[in-house]
Write a structure and sequence with these properties.
Layout: H1 2-31, E1 44-50, E2 53-58, H2 61-79, E3 89-95, H3 104-118, E4 124-131, E5 134-138, H4 141-153, E6 161-169, E7 174-182, H5 184-192, E8 199-205, E9 209-216, H6 224-232, E10 239-242, H7 249-255, H8 260-266, E11 281-285, E12 293-305, E13 310-318, E14 322-326, E15 331-342, E16 345-358, E17 364-370, E18 383-386, E19 389-391, E20 394-396, E21 399-402, E22 408-410, E23 415-422, E24 428-434, E25 439-448, E26 455-456, E27 461-465, E28 475-482, E29 485-487
Parallel strand pairs: 13-17
Antiparallel strand pairs: 1-2, 1-3, 4-5, 4-9, 6-7, 7-9, 8-12, 10-11, 12-15, 14-17, 15-16, 18-21, 19-20, 21-28, 22-27, 23-24, 23-26, 24-25, 25-27, 25-28, 28-29
């Protein structure tokens, strides 16, 4: 029967499989003996990954370790020095059935190639210069000196100072320190002079400078010109802003993240009281070098000077007012001073010695002590054109003075500016909050000269009168606001 034939054939197959399995086990036992890393019970080889790259498969860890030793030995013999390499090695078991094995020599050659690439043999010696976190990499010590010289020379026109490097080896790389000192010629000239002499007496870098010898790829090394440009910013230009309508120093400074004092320091000829017109150009950014230079210079010069003013208190005058009683005259003196600079900008001046050649005469002034009234009239002159109260069927909530466009408008009382700009029917207007909670409003202006958040003194100029908004002619509209309600200003004015 067919079923019986099939059964007999199945038994023959079964016996064949059993015999084959026995032979295979014997072969495995012979070919893969017990060892420190592999046993006859494991049907695995080892896939090798070195420094992140797969390099092949070996039958045991012993084969790999021998190949690694041989590759290291070849590199050390070729270079003539002992190179200690610590590669990242991963050995992963994998089923023998699916493994494609390489010979020990093939594995050794691949390890050799990868290790050679990871050594400094294929990289260039270089010097990394770190300046408080800003780094450049240069190809030689001479370039390092040239870079530091370039930063220094801008403020050492006579070349009286030089940069020297010294080396201290610690660990794998060399740490290099620098020193700035007077040249031998400059020091000899200074020693030949009797007493103290004028000139630069000290020069240093403000930033912490660290220099480390390293090995890097060629692409990481900057040329000397590139490094000098990056560090000194000598090829960068100032950023200029052109003023538009409504601009003043405080708004421009705020827009560029500056204080008014910083903005003024960037622009020669400007003061904190300067008025900016439409189209005026203002420097808002000056390139800051990555390596700042501090210079101390002794200088002897002659100058006119004033004696301290003598004040006489006068209770008939308001506080803040003064009058000259006796004009002073300037004196003349010779001064020796120690002046400190940061990147060429003076930061301090200490007078070491002075010789008065002509004595000054002090100016005498009267200074008012009388307390000012709470509020003062915000303009000088003008003619009263409308008072507080009912007008033309509506309530007029302030006082109007007719005056030419451009009349100076001043703060009626000291306080903080709440708003300054366009305010619908008021046209251009300024609102000031005062220390007692009252507010004042100045309307129909042609130009505002202050900005929100700014503190103003009594009688300080805040705007120019105009004819903007709902206005029938050039005038100033003035309000005093108490607890949110307009009141008659004349009850509060002097």
């Amino acid at each position: 029967m067919i079923i019986k034939k099939f059964t007999k054939h199945h038994k023959k197959l079964k016996m064949t499989y059993v015999a084959s399995a026995i032979v295979l086990c014997l072969l495995v036992t012979i070919l893969f003996p017990y060892g420190s890393y592999a046993s006859a019970s494991d049907n695995y080889d080892y896939a090798i990954t070195l420094n992140g790259q797969e390099i092949g498969t070996v039958t045991s860890k012993d084969v790999f370790e021998e190949a690694l030793r041989n590759a290291r030995l070849r590199i050390n013999q070729e270079t003539g020095t002992m190179i200690y390499l610590e590669p990242e090695i991963v050995l992963q078991k994998q089923d023998t059935i699916f493994a494609t094995q390489q010979t020990a020599k093939e594995i050794e050659d691949k390890i050799y190639t990868l290790l050679l690439e990871s050594t400094n043999l294929n990289k260039k010696q270089a010097y990394v210069v770190d300046m408080d976190g800003f780094t450049v990499t240069l190809g030689s010590r001479e370039d390092v000196v040239a870079l530091l010289d370039a930063a220094k020379n801008k403020y050492d026109a006579n070349g009286d100072f030089e940069v020297n490097l010294s080396e201290s080896t610690s660990g794998t790389y060399s740490s290099i320190t620098y020193e700035i000192k007077k040249t031998a010629e400059a020091q000899a000239a200074a020693d030949a002079q009797s007493g103290s002499t004028d000139g630069i007496v000290g020069l240093a870098f403000e930033d912490n400078v660290e220099i480390v010898e390293s090995y890097v790829n060629d692409s990481e090394i900057s040329t000397l010109d590139e490094a000098i440009s990056q560090v000194t910013k000598d090829k960068e230009e100032n950023k200029i802003y052109e003023a538009v309508a409504g601009d003043c120093l405080s708004t421009i400074a705020s827009d560029f993240g500056l204080t008014v004092a910083q903005l003024v320091s960037m622009n020669a000829g400007l003061t904190e009281d300067s008025i900016i017109g439409i189209g005026d150009q203002v420097t808002v950014t000056v390139p800051e070098p990555e390596l700042s230079v501090i210079v101390n210079e002794q200088k002897t010069y002659e100058e006119d000077f004033n004696a301290e003013t003598v004040y006489i208190e006068d209770d008939s005058m308001y506080q803040g007012e003064s009058a000259v009683v006796t004009e002073g005259t300037q004196g003349h003196r010779q001064v020796t001073a120690l002046i400190s600079y940061r990147n060429g900008e003076e930061t301090n001046r200490e007078i070491l010695n002075q010789n008065v050649l002509t004595e000054p005469i002090a100016q005498v002034e009267k200074r008012g002590t009388k307390v000012r009234p709470t509020f003062i009239k915000p303009i000088s002159g003008g003619s009263l054109s409308s008072t507080f109260g009912p007008r033309w069927g509506t309530m007029h909530e302030g006082v109007d003075w007719a005056c030419p466009v451009g009349t100076s408008v001043r703060a009626s009382c000291a306080g903080t500016v709440v708003s300054a700009g366009w305010s619908n029917g008021y046209g251009y207007a300024v609102v000031i909050r005062h220390s007692d909670g009252k507010q004042t409003r100045y309307g129909h202006l042609s130009k505002t000269l202050v900005s929100a958040g700014q503190y103003v003194e009594q009688n300080q100029q805040i705007a120019l009168s105009g004819n903007t908004g709902d206005s029938t002619g050039p005038h100033l509209h003035f309000e005093i606001i108490v607890n949110g309600n307009q009141v008659d200003p004349f009850k509060y004015l002097q």
